[in-house]
Amino acid sequence: MKGFVFHGPGKSAWEEVPDPGIKEPTDAIVRVETTTICGTDLHILKGDVPEVRPGTVLGHEAVGEIVEIGGDVHTVQPGDRVLVSCITACGRCGYCWERTYSQCRGGGGWILGRVIDGTQAEFVRVPFADLSVHTLPGAMDGRDAVLLADIFPTAYEVGVLNGHVRPGDSVAVVGAGPIGLAAIAMTGLFAPGRIVAVDLAASRLDAAKQLGADALADAREAPEQLIADLTDGLGADVAVEAVGAPESFELCTRVVRPGGHVANVGVHGRPVTLHLEELWSRNLTITTGLVDTYSTPTLLRMAAAGRIPTSSLITHTFTLDQMEEAYDVFGRGADTGALKVVLGGEQHEVVAVRAA
């Protein structure tokens, strides 16, 4: 089979790799129907995630068909169409009992495309399949489902829920990439008073407006003043950091009101200064997190009912063997307008972002 292989910072290729096989009785083998590229994959290619060793197949999101299961797998059968979660859970350790699956100590956590071969391939081995794949409801389209493997649970759990968004809140989302846009869409479920999107790219701000942002701010044009003006000088109740850069994190700490919440969602590859000399007296709550995906079953039901605009974020589709082209388009999002690219099927097209 073929997979997209990391060969060190700046080096990767779509190439022949060994077929995966059952290694443990809790494994399942999934034929990949649909996969996608995450901003975290770009961080890996830059060398920001040093634990990813050369020779690893990347990817941690997929929809596909179960083709083989180990003897201790009980919740799925060959032929089932499933969502492969970005987080693998053993289900037995203390963290899993608390639904903190990202910190699994039994061999799970974020392992696909990081410490074992991932989903950007024709087939993938999924450990602990009983808790790490989810049967798709009905005939749910793979394009809709695949974004529930990572970005929507991440935006919901690490952004909206960790940020304690409540009805009537003013919410600033700094970064209108895929995660930020998903955070805007999920924030809308909580009837906020106002959502402000901050980004450098006009195309992403336009997408933010379509997905529910009430006000748009160019990050280069004093977004602090706009947010202050919209909140009677107090600042946002919740600031969601969805970039993973020192500048965006520090901006969040400047635009949040005293007693507010800063929810860091972005993946940081550089040190960030925490200005406690300015923040210590402001009663702020700052949260970080890797998604646990405990919300995935709920989000699947909501998506099946049309409550989550998942495929609205998809701007480009490719076939699997166009993986290298897809990475190029996604990695140059500022030039190409790419928000989320999906791979699988026969299409290769550009589509407009649709309103929620």
Automatic annotation (TrEMBL):
Q: Show the PROSITE patterns listed in the entry.
A: ADH_ZINC (PS00059)
Supply the InterPro entries for this chain. ADH-like_C (IPR013149), ADH-like_N (IPR013154), ADH_Zn_CS (IPR002328), ER (IPR020843), GroES-like_sf (IPR011032), NAD(P)-bd_dom_sf (IPR036291)
Q: Which GO terms describe its molecular function?
A: oxidoreductase activity; zinc ion binding
Q: Which CDD domains match?
A: FDH_like_ADH2
The record's keywords, sorted A to Z, are: Metal-binding, Oxidoreductase, Zinc
Look up keyword Oxidoreductase and say if it applies: yes
The cofactors required by this protein are: Zn(2+)
Chain ranges of the Enoyl reductase (ER) domain: 8-343
Family note: Belongs to the zinc-containing alcohol dehydrogenase family.
Q: Which protein is depicted? A: Alcohol dehydrogenase
Upper lineage: Bacteria, Bacillati, Actinomycetota, Actinomycetes, Kitasatosporales
